[in-house]
Amino acid sequence: MKPAPFAYKKARSLAEAVALLGENADARLLAGGQSLIATLNMRLSAPSLLIDINGIGGLDGIAHKGGALEIGALTRHAQAERSDLIARHALLIARALPHIGHAAIRNRGTLGGSIAFADPAAELPACLLALDGEVDATGPKGKRTIHAQDFFKGLFETALGAQDVLTAIRVPAATKDSRVGFAELARRHGDYAMVGLAASARADGKGLADVRLAFFGIGATAMRPHKSELALASGNVDAAVATLDLEPNDDLQATAAVKKHLAGVLLRRVARQLMEAR
Ligand SMILES: Cc1cc2nc3c(=O)[nH]c(=O)nc-3n(C[C@H](O)[C@H](O)[C@H](O)COP(=O)(O)OP(=O)(O)OC[C@H]3O[C@@H](n4cnc5c(N)ncnc54)[C@H](O)[C@@H]3O)c2cc1C
User: Fold this and answer.
1) Predicted confidence band at 152 (pLDDT cuts at 50, 70, 90)?
2) pLDDT per position as a tens digit, 3-20
3) Measuring CA to CA, how many Å separate 182 from each of 94, 157, 179?
4) Which H or E element spans position 172?
5) Which H or E run includes 70?
6) What is the arithmetic mean of pLDDT over 119-124?
């Protein structure tokens, strides 16, 4: 299918993009286009105007500052995959990136687009939640920062307002005690996950502390099973699996019961990764 007709404007500044969103109630921002163009082609969405943000300077930097790693919204998945800074300071994101679609998609798709789109089966929203990260957005009232746990509101729904542009994400930079784990099950490599798990923790003596497990592909947003996190922090993997406090949805890929079983399988794999020294 072809998309419904739309107008196109290339914004040259954040202020211009925000103003254009204000003037056109059903406009959409265009970043990498890897999700948006598919929804237009399938006529799931028919905006009257696409506002291309690829010409706005300064949105694709990756910087280590103030104990955090900041990644600009227009950073392509492929650019992030090659980044030494991300490999060194945000290993969880580095491990997740190769699971996103295929090379052609990663060449165009952006980290900001993936976080703003908030697909429930996407890898990066779960990483942001597991790493206790945050999102910067600029709207008509200026810039604000939104914590990951307050950002993902529901199915493809975020805390971004109609006139907000996501400008960057930030995660705490890894320390020598940081531990991360990532695993997903998909029918073919590059497909969206049936179930996935992004996790972070802090090594604490021979055990773990601050365990954060973010399962994706199981509900409207990535979800944290808090009882399992506590069990894993006490070193009991069997208890972490037995108490998995998740209520997956049935979807086209698998039933809720299968997803819950797979979540347990992933939890054991990721627990081993978390317990390994870096
Ligand atoms: C075949 C295929 C397989 C894929 N597999 C996966 C996968 O396994 N895992 C995965 O995570 N993704 C997958 N994707 C999606 C891919 O990761 C996209 O790149 C990503 O979801 C959206 O990024 P984008 O830059 O392309 O955003 P776009 O498609 O340009 O935009 C997506 C949405 O986000 C909004 N948006 C974009 N940027 C901003 C911003 N800065 N501020 C506010 N709103 C913004 C847009 O208005 C739009 O509503 C796949 C895509 C395809 C086509």
Assistant:
1) very high
2) 999 999 999 999 999 999
3) 10, 24, 11
4) strand 165-172
5) strand 68-72
6) 96
Considering Cα of 124, then 129, then 131, then 133, what sign does the dihedral take? positive
Residues 6+ apart with CB under 8 A from 204: 177
Which atom of ligand 1 is nearest the CA belonging to 106? Answer: 19
Q: Please, are residues 70 and 26 in contact by the beta-carbon 8 Å criterion?
A: no
Place of tokens 């998995």: 244
Q: Which atom of ligand 1 is nearest to the CA of 45?
A: 49
Whether pLDDT at 247 is above 60: yes
pTM of the model: 0.97
Q: Give the three-state DSSP class for 15.
A: helix
Q: Look at ligand 1, atom 7, and give the residue with the nearest C-alpha.
A: 100
